[in-house]
Amino acid sequence: MNYPNGIKKENSSPHTPPVNYKNRGMTLENELNLSNEYYRDIDKAYIYKKPTPIKITKVDYPSRDKAIIKEAFFTVPSTTDYNGLYKGKYIDFEAKETKSHTSFSLSNIHPHQVTHLKNIHNHQGIAFLIVRFTSLNETYLLTIDKFTSFINSSNSKSIPISYFRENAYILSDSYRPRIDYLKVVDILIGGKNE
């Protein structure tokens, strides 16, 4: 940028901290965690992030209070990201982000996760996916019924954004909760707009 008297301003300062890419892809998860914390704080719902099941096989103890895990492995494939209770209903869902602005790749969700969500639904639980298209800043709640309907009627390896726009619920961002997905769950419980 040029200023009066020919003084040039550099675009970046040597004191500008480097861009931190560490938490990229975690935005949706962080926002859901904050939303679930808010729901618990106001005694509205009890939904938690499930821990990933691992078995620790090697630990270093440099000091008594500083154990460092050196080796671990997944004991069983994890099912989904979140589960809990709301209005006497069991809720179970998977949260995914994609950088694509045209589709959601089916390789992002594993067959055992789909089976798990179907089983939850078959036992009267509420099962769905929350998918964020980060490049579009659009977040959708897609019920397991709509998800399996797409899989059963298409040979495509991805779900186009148009399918989400026509068959899923758009989730708006807000302050508290960050993502109020329980508004949609209320519709699912009431059987409206399904």
**Average pLDDT score:** 83
CATH architecture: 3-Layer(aba) Sandwich
Number of helices: 5
- The fraction of residues in strands falls at 25-35%
CATH class: Alpha Beta
**Biggest sheet character:** 6 strands, mixed
Q: What is the total number of structural domains?
A: 1
What topology, given as strand order, has the largest sheet? Answer: 1-4-5-7-8-10
Helix content: 25-40%
CATH topology title: Trna Endonuclease, Chain: A, domain 1
- Helix and strand content put the structural class at alpha+beta
Runs in which pLDDT lies below 50 for 5 or more consecutive residues are 7-26
Element pattern in H and E: HEEEEEEHEEHEHEH
Question: How many extended strands?
Answer: 10
**Terminus-to-terminus distance:** 53 Å
Cα gyration radius (Å): 21 Å
Shape: globular
What does this entry look like structurally?
The chain has 194 residues and is of the alpha+beta class. It has one domain: Trna Endonuclease, Chain: A, domain 1. Helices cover 27% and strands 29% of the residues. The chain has five helices and ten strands; from the N terminus they run H-E-E-E-E-E-E-H-E-E-H-E-H-E-H. The chain is globular, with a radius of gyration of 21 Å.
Topology:
Layout: H1 27-41, E1 46-49, E2 54-60, E3 68-74, E4 82-86, E5 89-98, E6 103-105, H2 111-122, E7 126-133, E8 138-143, H3 144-153, E9 158-160, H4 161-167, E10 169-171, H5 182-190
Parallel strand pairs: 5-7
Antiparallel strand pairs: 1-4, 2-3, 4-5, 6-9, 7-8, 8-10
